[in-house]
């Protein structure tokens, strides 16, 4: 691409070279189908909702213990449902133990399908997201002021990035996002195999984000080795989301596709009529570009797959042995585990790298995000992972909510808890 005038626009403007006709309900139907399948495959087997209601025996849980002292048999003889002891900062206090309601029908439904709890957690996250647009408008004194500031924030990001790789060109050629999208637009007009690239990215941007993350949560819940590990990843995703939503309120940012037309970005997703049902409507915050949760979630998912591939274990061993020159006696030997098949390891490593790479390409090529949005998402995800246990401060609220609903939290079917027998 040269530095001459912008004379590369086809006569009649950019048009969708290809398009996949897809009814609007497809995405929500896909999400519901994933959730229903997850409920079925993670159900507690050999447990009847309307079966015998035997005496309830509390079972230890890594994340939310059901009593103040679950392993004190004498305490359970005097009070089978002792209050839970929680702490907040330096204050310790008691909360009610909802295990007394374990025989209720709605508690037994949750016990049969414990994945319903995960759906509830994500429902809360969506409700908070829905409020970010109204909170941002209130923070900036109205919709018009919010949109004006969001446009300025978007242009500030472009110009900040141009200082790194603009090459002294005039706008919009000094913006890397513009140059990348232009390449894909020209390929779309070429009429060869490359013409499908942009269509794939358009559909990927619209359809992969929510269904892909929901599928990952369901997959990880069903396959991870321990419930505590699942809770760490779930808290990280949730905390990443909540931290990003604070940015959406304080720093609303207009994506490139919504910038005024003279900046020459193209809304390729709309061009192909490939919008998701969650990309329009009153419940969508169109100014939630910084940081990019499309990339933030995909980055988290990618990190989990890379970690599960075992590559990092081998890399750590090589660093200790060949870089730090440590002998086996200089560090604790790793715990013996069943070796992972090489094919499985390779597949996980490929997914861990390819998935966030695809999402990064999609958010840039479709003019929905800036590179700085993706970098900020990595930073937010790292902070969320390091501080994910902060969300445990909400456990007392969960205790009171369960008590108010006369509902007992189910024993999860993740990891070794899958084999717990409950009557």
UniProtKB/TrEMBL annotation:
The keyword Glycoprotein is annotated on this UniProt entry: no
Cellular component terms (Gene Ontology): membrane
Key words, A-Z: Membrane, Transmembrane, Transmembrane helix
InterPro entries given in the database record: Aur1/Ipt1 (IPR026841), IPC_Synthase-Related (IPR052185)
Membrane topology category: Multi-pass membrane protein
Database matches in Pfam families: PAP2_3
TM helices/strands, residue ranges: 20-41, 113-132, 204-224, 236-254, 295-315, 346-368, 374-397
Localisation per UniProt entry: Membrane
Every Inositolphosphotransferase Aur1/Ipt1 domain range: 195-304, 349-386
Region (Disordered): 59-80
Keyword Transmembrane helix carried by entry: yes
Record protein name field: Inositolphosphotransferase Aur1/Ipt1 domain-containing protein
Organism of derivation: Tolypocladium capitatum
């Amino acid at each position: 691409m040269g530095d001459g005038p912008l004379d590369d626009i086809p006569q009649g403007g950019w048009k969708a070279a290809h398009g996949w006709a897809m009814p609007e309900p497809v995405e929500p139907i896909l999400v519901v189908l994933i959730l229903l399948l997850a409920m079925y495959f993670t159900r507690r087997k050999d447990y009847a909702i309307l079966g015998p209601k035997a005496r309830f025996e509390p079972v230890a849980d890594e994340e939310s213990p059901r009593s103040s002292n679950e392993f004190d048999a004498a305490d359970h003889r005097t009070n089978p449902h002792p209050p839970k002891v929680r702490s907040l900062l330096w204050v310790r206090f008691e909360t009610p133990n909802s295990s007394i309601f374990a025989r209720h029908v709605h508690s037994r439904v949750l016990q049969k399908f414990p994945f319903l709890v995960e759906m509830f957690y994500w429902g809360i996250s969506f409700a908070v997201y829905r409020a970010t647009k109204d909170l941002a408008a209130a923070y900036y004194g109205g919709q018009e002021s919010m949109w004006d500031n969001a446009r300025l924030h978007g242009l500030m990001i472009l110009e900040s990035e141009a200082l790194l790789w603009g090459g002294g060109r005039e706008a919009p050629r000094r913006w890397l996002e513009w140059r990348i999208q232009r390449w894909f637009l020209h390929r779309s007009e070429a009429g060869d195999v490359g013409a499908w690239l942009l269509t794939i990215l358009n559909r990927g941007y619209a359809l992969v984000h929510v269904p892909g993350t929901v599928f990952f949560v369901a997959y990880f819940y069903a396959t991870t080795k321990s419930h505590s590990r699942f809770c760490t990843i779930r808290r990280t995703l949730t905390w990443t989301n909540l931290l990003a939503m604070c940015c959406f309120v304080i720093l609303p940012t207009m994506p490139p596709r919504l910038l005024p037309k003279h900046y020459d970005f193209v809304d390729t997703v709309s061009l192909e009529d490939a919008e998701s049902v969650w990309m329009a409507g009153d419940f969508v915050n169109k100014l939630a570009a910084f940081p990019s949760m499309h990339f933030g979630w995909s980055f988290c998912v990618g990190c989990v797959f890379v970690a599960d591939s075992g590559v990092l274990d081998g890399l750590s061993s090589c660093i200790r042995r060949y870089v730090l020159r440590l002998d086996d006696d200089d560090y604790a030997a790793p715990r013996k585990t069943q070796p992972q098949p090489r094919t499985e390891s390779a597949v996980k490593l490929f997914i861990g790298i390819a998935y966030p790479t695809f999402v990064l390409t999609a958010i840039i090529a479709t003019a929905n995000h800036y590179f700085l949005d993706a970098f900020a998402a990595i930073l937010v995800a790292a902070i969320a992972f390091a501080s994910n246990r902060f969300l445990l401060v909400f456990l007392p609220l969960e205790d009171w909510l369960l008590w108010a609903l006369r509902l007992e939290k189910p024993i999860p079917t993740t990891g070794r808890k899958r084999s717990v027998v409950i009557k």
